[in-house]
Specification:
The complex is a heterotrimer. Chain A has one domain. In chain A, 85% of the residues lie in helices and 0% in strands. The N and C termini of chain A lie far apart (46 Å). In chain A, α1 runs antiparallel to α2 and α2 runs antiparallel to α3. Chain A is built from three helices and no strands. By secondary structure, chain B is mostly helical. Chain B is 67% helix and 0% strand. Chain B contains eight helices and no strands. By secondary structure, chain C is mainly alpha-helical. Chain C has one domain: Helix Hairpins. Chain C is 62% helix and 0% strand. At the B-C interface, α1, α2, α3, α4 and α8 of B face α1 and α4 of C.
Chain lengths: 87, 233, 125
């Protein structure tokens, strides 16, 4: 039973990893990588490691996503202020 | 063309490397002797219910010290590479509504309190200094995102960060002098099993780690926040 | 659990594939972060023991033999620090991206995408 759950989570994880690299928009791939971290933290709960699951859920899918988005916004604003091509 | 071939050849080589590793793995049926010793020693001599915490803080305390050092160096590198913005106001920045600003100011101390709760109970429940520090950092993320013009006081952040790192090393040295091994938390009374003031100095050390991690991650996020117009050049 | 170990290795391969094939700087860093998650998954799954609980002792577990009822706590402790270091290293890489974009001379050639690695030819040989 738990194996089926892990297989389903793994399929979702692999497809979101492929989606993260195949999509055109960077924001989509950032959110997909956050979703991968969230699924990994669920698997940590199944592996009975609650400490690691808490850390991965808060750092991997929370703060890393925020840091990525902030960095993306900062890079965009630098490109715009230099008069480069905006997309 | 040759690039693509090289990339996929590398990936196939990685698979060939990983496959024998994977076939060699045998599932554990019982703890190995080191883990067994940690579990028994942590419940008998250290009075700490959460064994992961006692490994992180005590048995592998030097690893954690090195990890905090790596975090400090990364923060220093980020602060070195990104100049802080001089100007306060931003042109064209999205201004949050009154409700959002007031609500974020209301929620900020509550999230800080929750982070403090998590790292104070690090030796009793899942969680600890790293998770509590991340919660404190996320409270400041809320504050930064809701109030665009807010300016964090970097003197206070650097003070908290350096003070907690300094006290961490000091407590480790006290253990070295009194008990003969660095970061030995048993110089404080061990208390009753499962109560808040137990397990020697583990709650103090983990709280210091939590404060340090929280201050450093707040610094990272504040360095990376988007700025409006470039005014220095 | 062997299944999660396989999953971790698949994530590692996917992360390396992304780092090698992507042109966008942000997507390369995302590949690194996926590789990181895969390594954490492999390490934690090596410490799993079937039908045992998390390494947090309460009175029920303490009444019996504690060391025969919990999973291996050492991989958890190692991964705990590795996750935090992963965040710090990711933030440092993103800072390098911002500095690359900041110091890039946009006027020199026909404007390509400034977030693409092919725009940076200063160190090419």
């Amino acid at each position: 039973m738990i194996n089926i759950a892990i297989i389903i989570l793994g399929i979702v994880m692999i497809f979101s990893a492929i989606y993260a690299f195949r999509t055109k928009k960077i924001i989509n791939s950032i959110i997909a990588s956050g979703a991968i971290s969230l699924i990994v933290s669920v698997i940590f709960i199944i592996l009975s490691a609650p400490d690691v699951a808490m850390t991965e859920a808060s750092i991997g899918s929370g703060l890393t996503t925020i840091v990525f988005l902030f960095a993306l916004g900062k890079a965009r604003s630098k490109i715009d202020s230099k008069g480069g091509k905006d997309d | 063309m040759i690039r693509t071939v090289l990339i996929y050849a590398t990936l196939i080589l990685m698979v060939i490397i990983f496959f024998p590793l994977l076939s060699e793995i045998k599932p554990l049926s019982q703890l190995n002797p080191l883990a067994k010793r940690y579990v028994e020693d942590s419940t008998k001599n250290l009075n700490s219910p959460n064994i992961v915490t006692s490994i992180v803080v005590t048995y592998r305390g030097l690893d954690t010290l090195g990890e905090v050092t790596v975090l400090f160096l990364a923060t220093t590198g980020i602060g070195f590479l990104i100049k802080r913005r001089k100007k306060n106001g931003e042109k064209g920045a999205f201004q949050a509504s009154e409700i959002l600003q007031t609500g974020s100011l209301f929620l900020f101390p509550i999230i800080i309190l929750f982070g403090t709760y998590i790292f104070l109970h690090g030796h009793l429940t899942p969680g600890g200094g790293f998770q509590g520090g991340v919660l404190i950092a996320s409270a400041s993320v809320l504050l930064i995102m809701a109030n665009v013009n807010i300016k964090l006081n970097h003197t206070v952040l650097h003070f908290i960060e350096s003070l907690s790192g300094f006290l961490y090393v000091i407590i480790g040295t006290i253990g070295l002098f009194l008990l003969g091994s660095f970061l030995d938390p048993k110089f404080l009374p061990l208390g009753k099993f499962g109560s808040l003031f137990s397990a020697g100095a583990i709650p103090i050390i983990y709280s210091l780690i939590g404060l340090k991690v929280g201050a450093e991650l707040t610094n990272i996020v504040d360095s990376l926040r988007a700025e409006g117009m470039e005014d220095e050049k | 659990m062997i299944l999660t170990t396989v999953l971790g290795f698949i994530l590692i391969i996917l992360g390396i594939w992304g780092m090698l094939t992507q042109k966008n700087l942000f997507k390369m860093v995302i590949g690194f972060s996926i590789l990181d998650s895969g390594i954490h998954l492999v390490i934690v799954s090596l410490g799993y023991i079937k039908d045992k609980t998390a390494p947090i002792i309460d009175s029920d577990i303490l009444a019996n033999n504690a060391s025969s009822q919990v999973v291996d706590p050492i991989p958890s402790a190692l991964v705990l620090t590795a996750i935090v270091i992963g965040l710090a290293v990711t933030a440092l890489m993103l800072t390098y991206i911002i500095q690359l974009v900041n110091t890039h001379n946009f006027d020199s050639k026909n404007m390509k995408d400034p977030l693409s690695i092919t725009s940076y030819e200063e160190l090419k040989w």
